[in-house]
Design a protein that fits this description.
The complex is a heterodimer of chains A (79) and B (265). In chain A, helix 1 packs across helix 2. Chain A is 63% helix and 0% strand. Chain A has one domain. Chain A has 5 helices and no strands. With 265 residues, chain B is an alpha/beta fold. Chain B folds into 2 domains: 114 residues, Cobalt-precorrin-4 Transmethylase, domain 1 (3-Layer(aba) Sandwich); 114 residues, Tetrapyrrole methylase, C-terminal domain (Methyltransferase, Cobalt-precorrin-4 Transmethylase, Domain 2). In chain B, strands 3-2-4-1-5 form a 5-stranded parallel beta sheet, with helices on both faces. Chain B has a 5-stranded mixed beta sheet with strand order 6-7-10-8-9. In chain B, helix 3 packs parallel to helix 4. The longest helix of chain B is centred in the N-terminal third of the chain and has 17 residues. The radius of gyration of chain B is 21 Å and the shape is globular. Classes of the chains: A mainly alpha (79), B alpha/beta (265). At the A-B interface, helix 1 and helix 5 of A face helix 2, helix 3 and helix 7 of B.
Chain lengths: 79, 265
């Protein structure tokens, strides 16, 4: 499934992001102490590094591998 | 008016935190929810928000033209509306920006006599304005899908900001594939007809996640062809000059207004 033996990998990070989006108190905790919040969520260190560095490409690649999905782009041009 | 309705909403770019209260209410009140999200992690969030929602993603298939994919999406959405259901269709970003099935679903629903509305949302361009500090009120803003920009040889003003979308997939009309650096080179060559090789440009990507900064990478136009592009990369080209004021039109505005036009214009 994921590249971290099923623990602390992209699935868990996605769950963490989902929790942030729905829980203002947790989001506030993250903004106060990002590293602490990510570690408390048991996210793997390589993903924590990618989140803190803002490495969007790495994060997206890991999520795509995890969920077997490719990016969807929005529009079509009739040339 | 027949039973059944359609509300089209967007999630914003950063999933979860950019969903408007208005859009959230539409999702929660709908009988049926259909959704199409770009970022895989966003689906984890959305399935918690709306557990019974139906993904439109299965309509994508390798080898299937996007136009055909979109027809199938619209048909699935409208099928529920025709059954008298109050339907909410959810797209990432702004549902009316780079999202032809959303517009088509609204048009078709209205043509068939159903109530159909689209709600505004945070678009990638909104994120760009904030992240890059660009104000379209200062010197305008030209915004094109990159393939359209090239194929139609769009006339543009190098003295105004230029935003080119989907630069990693120039000329691609099928299912999503790997970024195409060769086609991006064609775009760069074209831009070099209007800008100096040393003109600074930005490869930009808004963060699709609820935390984290945007990716902002600056290059000269000559260097940017070698830049690694992500699926969501956008090319921002700042103005290369200040457009001169037209003396004739200034005189006409002065004559038309009680107050003279300020000198700074």
């Amino acid at each position: 499934m994921n590249g971290n033996g099923g623990k602390g990998g992209p699935q868990q990070l996605a769950e963490f992001f989902a929790s942030l989006a729905e829980n203002p108190a947790l989001y506030n905790d993250y903004l106060t102490n990002p590293l602490g919040a990510l570690r408390a969520a048991n996210i793997s260190e390589d993903l924590i590094s990618a989140v803190l560095a803002g490495d969007l490409h790495h994060l997206n690649k890991r999520f795509q591998e995890e969920f077997a999905q490719t990016i969807i782009l929005g529009t079509i041009v009739r040339g | 008016m027949p039973a059944g309705s359609l509300t089209v909403v967007g999630t914003g770019i950063a999933f979860g935190v950019q969903l408007t209260p208005q859009a959230r209410m539409a999702i929660e009140r709908a009988d049926d929810v259909f959704y199409l999200l770009a970022e895989p992690a966003a689906e984890v969030w959305f399935r918690k928000l709306s557990p019974s929602a139906h993904s439109l993603r299965p309509h994508y298939a390798v080898g299937r033209e996007r136009a055909e994919t979109y027809v199938r999406m619209v048909e699935e959405i409208l099928g529920a509306v025709r059954e008298g259901r109050n339907v909410c269709a959810v797209f990432y970003g702004h549902p009316g920006v780079f999202a032809s099935p959303s517009h088509e679903a609204v048009r078709r629903a209205r043509a068939e006599g159903f109530s159909a509305v689209m709600l505004p949302a945070v678009s990638a361009e909104d994120c760009l304005f904030a992240d890059l500090g660009v104000d379209p009120g200062e010197s305008g803003c030209q915004s094109y899908e990159a393939t359209d920009f090239l194929l139609r040889r769009r006339t543009f003003d190098p003295a105004a900001p230029l935003v080119l979308w989907q630069v990693a997939f120039i000329g691609v009309t099928g299912a999503p594939v790997e970024p195409s650096p060769h086609a991006f080179g064609v775009l760069v060559d074209h831009l070099l007809e209007f800008y100096e090789d040393s003109h600074r440009v930005i490869v930009y990507e808004a963060s699709p996640y609820p935390v984290g900064a945007a990716s902002i990478r600056e290059f000269t136009l000559g260097e940017v062809r070698a830049a690694e592009l992500g699926a969501m990369s956008t090319l921002y080209v700042p103005p290369a000059a200040v457009a001169p004021v037209d003396a004739g039109l200034r005189a006409r505005l002065d004559a038309a207004n009680v107050e003279p036009v300020p000198e700074r214009l």
